[in-house]
Predict the 3D structure of the following.
Amino acid sequence: MITINEITIVRDGRELIYDYSEQIPAGSITVITGPNGCGKSTLLAAIAGDFPPDKGTITIDGIHPILTSAHDLSKIRAVAKQNQLYSLGFSVREVIEMGGKPDEIIRLLGLEHLANRLVTTLSVGEAQRVSIAQAIAQKTPVLILDEPFAAQDNENRGRVVTVLQQLAREGVTVVVVAHSSEQELTWADKVIKQFL
Amino acid sequence: MRELKKSLIALNILLVFVAVFIALSVGPTKIDGFFQQLMQPGSNEILWQIRFPRVIAAVIVGAAFGVAGLMAQGASNNALAEPSILGTSSGAALGAVIAILFGLAQVGSIAATISGVIGALLATALTLKLASLRGNLSSFALIIVGIALSATLSAIVGLTSAMITQADARSISFWNFGSLALITYENLVGVAATTLIGLGIAWKVAPSLDRLSFGDDTAFHLGINVVKARWLALVALSLLAGGAVSTVGIIGFIGLAAPHIARFIYGPSHRLLVIQSALIGSLIIVFADTLARSIAAPNELSIGLITSLLGAPILIALVSIKNNVWRVQ
Amino acid sequence: MSILMISGCANSQNFLSKSISQEDVTALSVSGTQNFSVKRVVVLANGVAEIMVALNAKSILVGRDISSNEDSLSDIPIVTSGHQVISEKVIALNPDLVIIDASTGPKAAIEQIRSAKIKVIQTPESWSLEDISPKVLAVGSAIGAPGAAKLLINKLISQGTIKQVSGNPKIAFLYLRGTSTVYLIGGPGSGADSLIKEIGGVDVGAENLPRAFNTLTAESLASLNPDVLLVMTKGLESVGGVQGLIKLPGVAQTEAGKRKAIIDVDDSLLLSFGPRSYSLLTELAKSVEIVMQ
């Protein structure tokens, strides 16, 4: 469970998030949605421990991400960011392997045909799925995904949703940021329409 | 795949040995009964007192410059980075020159090596600091600041070395273009130590550099302490480049060429690249130095020139064959 | 006590190196006051100033180049920066004659001096004993004292035979600069080759190398294997003296390096080829004998 307690995040002198509290339950998929620039991605980054909020606290199962070492944190939460870019020519399998054991997730996300491709040659959507696969391969109790469907067709979108639902059933806390144009959020257990 | 990697490493180690053998057998002086002399260390003075330390120095500094370039590129996640672009090399030269100016050290001594390493570390840290004054480290700022700082430090090296009246101070051309001409066994101690430690740290930090290539945030999400990893890589870079520069001067281009050539052939995994950049760096410098002292014999040519002439065509050929190893964002 | 000292000397292989300074040589000269055709002379050619001193014409010498650095000239201002002539300094001395040779530069500075209506005369360079007489005559003629020049020449050629060293030792002339990583070794026409030949030595550089000065790898020097190294005093200092020189790879492997058979000669003296050169040859031959022992 992720507990957000009265946080304020200031960006460029503006209070992007003000005195905000929320609870994200374990074993479920929570979707944060809202218009561009409302601070969805910033909130995710704060949960991931990238930076401390200006006020308030965030805890994952009672642990403060910003007080936890990078190594320990990587056992607690995994993150797939919105636009993962690859500069070095690792193979897809190698990249996923840097998260954890690759074979199962490659199969579940239908990445078999890409497994030996270099990540530098992938399309935006393919690169996005590789980054999701890498995060899932970390096998952490919390999984954080920023706009995972932005460049996916329906088939791949379905595959990702199926995997996320399976993970939630296994007890993983899944947090997803989705653009407000995402109409069908039926697969989500909880939808947070943020900061409107 | 793993077997293939191992045999490629074995092949390159073999190539280095062949290169060393050729380098020992070739030179302005013909050595009678070369094989017998080679079997009896110390027998032939030209072979054992002049050629041998020089060839060993070529192996060591080739590996050092090659892996220094790899560390520079990995730590900054920038394909153009190398010790002489990040200010590392000129910082090392300045460190060594200052130590010599104050009479604390001679070229090739352990004291000069230590001050070279300190100069390298300070200069590299300064480049990174100045390049990230406005928040995130940008590739553009890094290269511009690095080149500017290198030019500044080189100028100070020039002015300082003109002031030095101490014996054995070496000229600006030594610091700028490098030379292995007057290497003795004594000179090898310091640079061998810094290179070994540098290679060890490079090996240790290599997996983190793989992940740093995804960007700082993703590397952090994968469990990497980004600041610590980058510092380790910079320490390795400074040990490698600082030790080599304080002993043989700045041999440019090899730091850029060796890791790129290795990456083209063996892929981007940094553990593998630590080994292969070292071997390719050694190969190029051993061959370049052999040519430098033998093609115009008995005259001595500049090693820096030969290194560029040797490395550049290989790099250009590889880029034209295969251009997807490093995608610039 | 004395026994200990003697045995100590005998055991340590105490090879000698030798240094030849300006005080060790004497310059030939002619005496008597002379009348010269010029009153203020600036000398920008190697070795000309000392010829003027030998012709008793120091009184009309008002400026000199940096290579004319004999002790007796120390009160005369230098008008070059490094080896570059500074025309302003020359013109400011208000000379009525400037003497140059083929090596004087930059040419633009000489042109500026000429355009200031100052008479410029070029005298021949000297790279061997044979070159001395024509040079002395040219200098004497330039300052209007050809008679004195002829007297000096007669004195020079009546010096008799030059002392010869025994055993045809192999000698190499190394031009040392501590800041350089390559050896510059004298070959045919370096000047040192003629000195070495005059005393009966073999210049290994001149015998084996193509140019007057050659960049040389350490192992090429080792394989030339000279018995004696001839260097300039300041050059030797720049590599840390004899101790520094004999440690350098290349030198360390030669007979000369192993036996410390190093002879250093004052920088302005060695290749000046003028009134001091005969005396220098005598000292050089003596030094070679000493270091070869």
Observations:
- The longest helix of chain C spans residues 277-292.
- Residues 1-12 of chain C have pLDDT under 50 and may be disordered.
- Chains C and A do not touch (no CB pair under 8 Å).
- The first strand of chain C starts at residue 18 and ends at 20.
